[in-house]
Amino acid sequence: MVKSINLFDKDIKFSTKFYCNEKLIRKSNKSHNHNFIVPELPAHCKIEILPWKIKPIVRFDNQLVNYGLAEITPWDHMLEFKLNKNFLKKYFKNIILAKKKYLERTGQNIPDNMESYVGVNNDHIEIVNQILEKIK
Amino acid sequence: MKSILLTSLPKYDLVAPPAAIGVLQGVAHDHGLETSILDFNLLLNRMLTNDEWLELDNWCVFIKHKISKTLEQKILTLWDGEIIKRLPSGCEYLLISVFSYWSLYIARLIITHENKKLRPYKLIVGGNGVVSKFPDTNEYFTDWNKKNKFIEYLITGDGESPLGEIFSQGRYTYDNNNIDSFPFPTYQGYDLNDYEEKKVYITGSRGCVRKCTFCDIYNIWPKFRYRSAKSLVEEIKSHFYRHGVTRFDFTDSLINGSVSNFYKFNVLLAEEKEKNKDLKDIGYLGQFICRPKHQMPAFHYEAMYYAGCKQLTVGIESFSNPVREHMKKKFSDSDIEYHLEQCKYWNIPNVFLMITGYPTETINDHIKNCNDIKKYKNYAKMGIIEMIRWGTTMHLIPDTPITNEKNITELGLKGRNNKTIGFEPESQYYWHSDANPTLTIQERIRRRIELHQLSVNHGYPQPRVKNELQTILEMAKLIKT
User: Fold this and answer.
1) Cα–Cα distances in Å, from B197 out to B193, B333, B384?
2) Which of A116, A124, A135 lies nearest to residue B469, judging by beta carbons?
3) What is the DSSP string of B326-349?
4) Model pLDDT for residues A32-63, shown as the tens digit of each residue
């Protein structure tokens, strides 16, 4: 469950306005570092940033997140994203999806490779049962 | 012009061109030799059927000590065909890289075969594997060669200096104590698209600052040596401009062996990326040792992030402190937590390498492993523990501290039928400990399976687990034979 958001840019100081579900929650003055508390979930978050075209590091609950995987849309003037209590589940699903797409691009998206390199869909119940049978 | 054919053998991954050949090709070029290369590992992977590849794999990792005559003949026919095809004119040397002790059996097959031929070239053989023993005969590779006189130049240890001496007929050598004096590796002749990832291996150090009980690195490189941060960044830039490679995989046993040099490297690379935007996509991955906070403060992780650290492979080995203590890993539970927090803060993914059924592992240690899988599950969801690998249960490697006389006596380690460890090939997996009698092979396998099931249930990605389980199944089948 995401409770806090942090924006950081080591080079440029910027100011922000944080909106959650269309309500202005907090304004912050020019700084390299900005912290916000998420007041409720689900949350449709918009963070307006001045000056424009800054793409700060974003952290949810102290985790630096990838924009694509966290489904953050970086507009020129703001960041927009949605949070809910299943955020981690979505983030993990997007990691696996991204790896799958990478394998597709390289022509290697075959079930064996999802098993070998991504490491999912691999409970291998049949082999496990055979092993357990042998060590009875 | 003198020339050389450089070859590499299974078992090696198929992710990128083998580092050793890149390094040795660099030395050959430095001495003006014409080179040709053969990645026999890659070739066999393409030419063998899945069943044949699995048979080869089980042989390489000593689950089986023989392969069928048909497969043996197929391997040798493919070898001969490729050697003829790739041999440069007037080839003076054929170099065979025996990457690790998992290349021992196939190296013996091929070298024996080479000596049945009338060959125009001399054999140069080197690599980590040549310091090991053949598990089936308990004979050192070096002794085997001394007896048979198969190899004209057998190189044990670092390849650069001896190879330089061979090529220059003793007139020139590199300074082994200063690995910055070695030439940069070159990957000429490789099509990087043949490999799973467009990346190259890079070596920042040799040896290790630890002496973990299960590891044989100390036998290969007793002294830890590292390259300067500046030289590493220069090499990265040279591969980027020559091959367009942006991904660099360190071959080091640990990239943070020298904490200060590793920090310098990160700062320097980050500065170069800042100055030259062409380099912005450069990233690296490597093996890393978990260290306490006072050794690796938070700003070190920050520097890693800005340098482009994309993945760390960390030998956690066990979540149980007493087990790690016996292994001489020298980090605590709170060090693991600190490391994970920092990696989370800078989004640095980890591959955790684990060992199931270490000789001192009690049922409580196993329960700790199970509990910590649950405890750290959110790190898996966030991709911070990107993967976990539990391996095929603890095997005892000869000439590692765990199989020294002291440990064998103290732990009462014995092979099957109470035989001495090391005198029977199977003892690598089928050992038992009088000091920990409930940790039978069956119990090790049972724990391994429980950890597999728990990891699946809690969403930890586990790569190549099918292969590992198949190997465990083979082990289980042999228990009663």
Assistant:
1) 8, 34, 21
2) A124
3) HHT----HHHHHHHHHHHHHHT--
4) 999 999 999 999 999 999 999 999 999 999 99
Which residues of chain B lie closer than 8 angstroms to A85, CB-CB?
Answer: none
Going by the DSSP 8-state scheme, the letter that residue A18 receives in this structure is E
Query: Any chain A CB within 8 A of the CB of B378?
Result: yes
> Residue A108 pLDDT > 70, yes or no?
no
Give B480→chain A minimum CA distance, Å.
Answer: 9
Least Cα separation, residue B115 to chain A (angstroms): 37
Of A87, A83, A84, A90, residue with least CA distance to A47:
A83
Alpha helices in A1-106 (DSSP H): 87-105
Residue whose C-alpha is closest to residue A56's, from A5, A131, A97 = A5
Q: Which of residues 32-51 of A touch B (CB under 8 A)?
A: none
Optimal mutation site among A90, A93, A120, interface B, most CBs of chain B within 10 A: A120
Tokens of residue B318, six digits: 């066990």
pLDDT of residue B407: 94
Size of interface A-B (CB pairs under 8 A): 90
Tens-digit pLDDT profile for residues A70-100: 999 999 999 999 999 999 999 999 999 999 8
Residues in chain B predicted with pLDDT less than 70, given as ranges, are 422-427, 480-481
What's the pTM value of the predicted model, to 2 decimals? 0.88
| Chain A residue nearest residue B381, CA to CA | A92
Q: Confirm if B316 and B355 have CB atoms less than 8 A apart.
A: no
CB-nearest to A63 from B344, B462, B472 is: B344
Beta strands in B167-232 (DSSP E): 199-202, 205-206, 225-226
CA–CA separation, B92 and B169 (whole Å): 13
**Does any CB of chain A come closer than 8 Å to the CB of residue B470?**
yes
Phi/psi for A17 (5° steps) reads -130, 125
Listed in sequence order, the residues at least 6 apart from B409 whose beta carbon sits closer than 8 Å to its beta carbon are none
Half-sphere exposure of A27 (CA within 13 A, CB side): 2
Contact A109, A88 (CB under 8 A): no
Query: Is residue B206 helix, strand or coil?
Result: strand
ipTM computed for the complex: 0.95
CB-based contact B453 A128, cutoff 8 Å:
yes
Main-chain phi, psi angles of B288, to 5 degrees: -140, 145
- Residue by residue, DSSP assigns B36-89 as EEEEHHHHHHHHS-HHHHHHHHHHHTTSSS---HHHHHHHHHHHHHHHHHHPPT
Is the CB of A76 inside 8 Å of chain B's CB atoms?
A: no
Residue B248 backbone dihedrals phi, psi, to 5 degrees: -125, 130
